[in-house]
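Hi L.,

As promised, Citrate lyase acyl carrier protein:
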Amino acid sequence: MLKLKKAAIAGTLESSDVQVSIAPNEEGGRKIELQSVVRMQFGESILATVHRVLDEFDVQDAVVRLNDKGAIDIVIMSRMQAAICRAAAIAYDWAKEDPHGQH
């Protein structure tokens, strides 16, 4: 299990982007808050993507807040990955490692 050490943010509030903030959840478990301009249409899909990235990094105890301005799935994934790495204070070699199992 990957333990988050601090709060971190990735992304912007620009159109077609998403700002992700993540922090350790001292109470345990996952707490996810989603604000999105497309929540009615894609909210469930966005939340599924968030859980998938948390699972890939084995993050169990986190508070995640997303402010989505219409980002596509790959952008959400990338912002989540960056925020997790910053919060866990780990380096990730994107050229050599792929959490999605693709080479």
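Helices lie at 39-56, 73-88.

Thanks again for sending the construct details.

K.
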